[in-house]
Amino acid sequence: MATTLDKVDIVTVGVGWTGGIIAAECAKAGLKVVGLERGKDRNTADFLMVHDEYRYAMRYDLMQDLSKETITFRNHRKMRALPMRQMGSFLLGEGLGGAGTHWNGQTWRFLPYDFEIKSMTDKKYGKNKLSADYQLQDWGITYDELEPYFDKFEKTAGLSGEDKNPFAGKRSSPYPTPAMKKTPILKKFETATSNLGYTPFMLPSANLSEAYTNPDGESIAGCQYCGFCERFGCEYGAKTSPEITVIPTARKTGNFDIRFHANVVEVMKQGDKVTGVKYIDTQTGEEYIQPAEVVVLTSYVMNNAKLLMVSGIGEQYNPETQKGTLGKNYAYQVLPGATGFFDEQMNVFMGAGSLGMTIDDLNGDNFDHSDLDFIHGGSISMTQTGTRPIQTNPIPPDTPTWGAEFKKASIYNYTRTLNVSTEGASMPHKENFMSLDPDYKDAYGVPLLQLTYNFTDQDRNLHKYITEKTSAIMKEMGAKTVMPGSPITNYDIVPYQTTHNTGGTIMGASPDNSVVNNYLQHWNADNLFVVGAGNFAHNSGYNPTGTVGALAYRAAEGIISYSKNGGSLV
Amino acid sequence: MTEDKKGLSRRDFLKTTGIATGALVGGGLIGGLVGYNVKKEGQVAGTGGHKGADGEPVAVNNRGLMFFTNMAEFNVLAQAVERIFPEDDLGPGAIGLGVPYFIDNQLAGNYGSNVKEYMQGPFFAGESTQGYQSRLTRAEIFRQGMVRMDEEAKGRFEKNFVDLEGQQMDEIITAFQKNEVDMKGVSSEFFFKLLRQATLEGAYADPIYNGNVNMDAWRMKEFPGNQMTYIAEIENDQFVKYEPKSLSSMEH
Ligand SMILES: Cc1cc2nc3c(=O)[nH]c(=O)nc-3n(C[C@H](O)[C@H](O)[C@H](O)COP(=O)(O)OP(=O)(O)OC[C@H]3O[C@@H](n4cnc5c(N)ncnc54)[C@H](O)[C@@H]3O)c2cc1C
Ligand code: SF4
Questions:
Q1: Is residue A399 less than 8 Å (CB to CB) from chain B?
Q2: How many beta-carbon pairs below 8 A join chains A and B?
Q3: Alpha helices (runs of H) in A285-403, residue ranges in sequence order
Q4: How does pLDDT run across A354-398, given as a tens digit for each residue?
Q5: What is the ipTM of this complex?
Q6: Would you call A500 a catalytic residue per the annotation?
C-alpha cells in the first residue's frame, strides 16, 4: 500500500533544466513545490576529479542507470523492438541537474521559420513540397510570442554570444555576456566560410566568457577552456547548469523541496484533473502518493511520454490510422559533415563545449529550396570542444583500423584533424513515433517506452546536400585530405549522435493534433503540464535547450496563472 | 611529490580559492593558477621527455590479476592487444602501457559485469542497428574470446596463440573481426569490437586505471591529460606542448 503524503501546490517529475525552471519561478511566486528526482544530489564540489575521459565519457558516470530503465527500439513496425541495453545514440540524464549537468551548452533560439514551418512551406513551395507522410505542423506559437521567454532563459543562463547572425530572429536585448575567445582553429573556419560567401558568427555559449551574476542573483564563473565540458560537470561552475542557477534560486525561497531517489511510476487522474503522482523510494522500495494541485512532467522527452502512456492520459498515436496525438512526431537529427586532415599541429585538446563558430546560411529556409528535394537544413559549425584521446583516433581513408599503421596514423593525426559538423533538422514522419513496449519492463515493473524510428528520404537528401557543402568548406580551410561523412542509411542506435530527441508530447493550437497547448498545459487535464523537447512538433537544425528553456519559462507563467485562476489558459 | 614541497597542494589551492565550490573567480586569480602550474613543472612548452615527474612508472608495483585466473588466457589477451596497438619507434605498445592489466582490472568491476546496463530478458539477436543484445556480460565474453582465440590458433597452426608469428595472430584477429569465428551468445565481430575498444581505453585512459603507464600514450599523442585550464594559451597560434598530468596529481 502506498503512503499518501500531504498535498502540495506543485510537483515536478525530475529536476533538470525544465524541472529547475518551473521550480524557481513557482517557488518565487510563493507556491510550494516538490521536485521528485530519481537520481542523486550533486553539485560543483563533485566535479573536482572530473577530467576523466574513461569514467565520464566512456562509462557514462553521470548518466542514466540503464539497468533500471531504458527504452526499446526498432527501425520500423515489422521489426521486433529490442532494448537499448547500452547507452549509445543519445545520453540520458539522471541526478540533480539532469543532462544539464553534462551538456555542452550550445544554446540556440530556433528560427522564426521553425514555429510556423507548415504555413511558410506551403505558402512558398506549395502544398506538395513534402509528401503527406510527413506530419508537418505549426507550433501554435510564433517566435515573437516566445521571444520574451528566450530572453529570460538567456539572462538566467548568462549566455555568451554576438548578435551577428543575419538569419536569427529579432532580439529584445543583447547577449548577457560577450562571445567566447576566437581561437586560431575558429578563425580558419571564419576565413574559409567568409571566402565562400557565408556569414560566420560565434556560437551562443553557456560556457561563460566572463563571470556573471544573473537576475536571480546566482553567480556563474568564467570558462577556463579546460576541454572537459561535454559529458562532464564543470569544476569551476562556469558552465551554466540547473544546479548552479535555477535550483539554488528555488531553494532560497524556502518553498522548494527536492526528494532524491524518488522514481515516479504513475500520474494519478480523476475525471478531467490529475491528482498527483505515485513514486517509489528506490532506497527503501516504499511507495508514496504525492498529491498536488498541479503536476508538471519535466522528466525528459522519453519519460514524459512514457508517464502519460502508462497513466492512460491522452490518446496514443496510431501510425495505421494517423489518429491520436500521444507519441506522435518523434524526431531526431542528422549530422552531415566533413573531416579534414592537416599538416600542422593544432591545440585540439583545448576548448569548451560551446566554443565554436557557425554559419546559418544553409539552415531553415534561409536558402531557396525550390529545386531541392528536401526542406529545412542545418547549422554548420566548427567547434573546439576539447578532443579526447580515447574517443578520437582520426585516420585518413583506407587506413586499417588497428595494428601498426593504425597506431602511427591515429597518433599523427590526433592533433592535425578538424571536423566541420552540421546539426541537420529532422521532419516528423508518420512511421516515426513512440509507444509502450508490450514485452520489456523497467526495474519497477512498468513497461518500457518503445521507439519506432528510421531516417527518411527527407533526412537522406538533406544529409547529402549539406555534406557536399561541408566538404567544400573543409577544402577551403586548407585540409590536405578531406573525408566527407558517409551517406546515411538506416538509423542505428549504437554510435553516439546527439541527445536531441524531440516530439511525442507535441504542442499546438488544437487538441486534434497536439498533446498540450502553447502554455504546455495538457488538453485533457487543466492541471497537468508537460515540459521539454517533447513539445517540439519537428526538430530544427540546432541544439534544443534554448528553445526548451524558453518554453519552460512560458509554462511556468501558465502554471502560476492557472494556480490563481484555474481553467484552460488558451 | 613536487607539489607538496611547495607547501600548497593543488587541491588546497582550489579549496582556498573557492574555485572548486563554484564561487566567482576573477581573471587575475586564474592567471595565478596558470603561472603556478608552469612553475611547478619547470618548463612546459617544449617538454616531451618520456619520463614522468618521478622518473619511474608508478603503477607497476601494484599490478596483479583481479579477473583472470589462468595465465594462459591472460597471455592471449596481452599478445592480442599488442597486435592491435603495437610497440614502435613512437613508443610502447599495449603491453608496455599496461593495457592487459587495465582490461583485467576492468573486467573484475562494473564494466565486466555490465552493472549500468539493461540485462533483463528475453534476449533476441536483433538487427545490427539495435546494438548489444547478448545475455553475456563483458567478463564472460572476454573469457570466451580468449579461449576461442587459442582454439583458433591450435586449429589453424597447431600452436598456442602466444607462440604464433605476428602475421598469424593478425590472421586470427581478422577472422574474429570479419565474424568468421563461432562464439556462443555473441558474435565474434562484436567481441573484436569490444577488444579493440578496450585496448584504446587502456592505452589512453588516465593512469589511475593501471593502463597508460607513465602517461606514455598521452605523450605519444601529445595529449596533456588533466590540465585545469588552457585560458592562457587558447588563442596561441603555435602548438603548445605540455608535460602531461594525471588525475592522481589532484589527491595531494
Ligand atoms: C552529452 C550531451 C551534450 C548536450 N549538449 C547540448 C548542447 O550543447 N546544447 C543543448 O541545447 N543541449 C544539449 N544537450 C541536451 C540537453 O542536455 C537537454 O536538452 C536538457 O538537459 C533537457 O532538460 P530536461 O529538463 O528536459 O531533461 P533532463 O535534463 O534529462 O532532466 C530530466 C530529469 O528527470 C529525471 N527523471 C526522469 N524520469 C524520472 C522519473 N520517472 N521519476 C523521477 N525522476 C525522473 C531524470 O533523472 C533527470 O534528472 C546535451 C545532452 C547531452 C547528454
Ligand atoms: S571548458 Fe569551461 S565551462 Fe567547460 S568544464 Fe571547462 S571551465 Fe567549465
A1: no
A2: 201
A3: 300-310
A4: 999 999 999 999 999 999 999 999 999 999 999 999 999 999 999
A5: 0.96
A6: yes
